[in-house]
Amino acid sequence: MAHPILQKMCHFDVKGFIDHRANGFKCAGLWKVYGDEAKAQALFAKFKKCTEIYCALWQTGSKLEQLAVAV
Hints:
Blueprint: H1 4-19, E1 27-28, E2 32-33, H2 37-59, H3 64-67
Antiparallel strand pairs: 1-2
């Protein structure tokens, strides 16, 4: 299950995407943002950092079983 903040942001952004027919968004990263741009940018940065860390671990030989974690 997603974090409550992510759920709320995604719901608002999905609704905005539908209501605005994919136009008029505030910014675009991993998705088009219609709500809180600052929170979305911070979240995009966290996802990017996490991806970089996992890719580095994968490239140095970590196994998928080691990288998969329960949340």
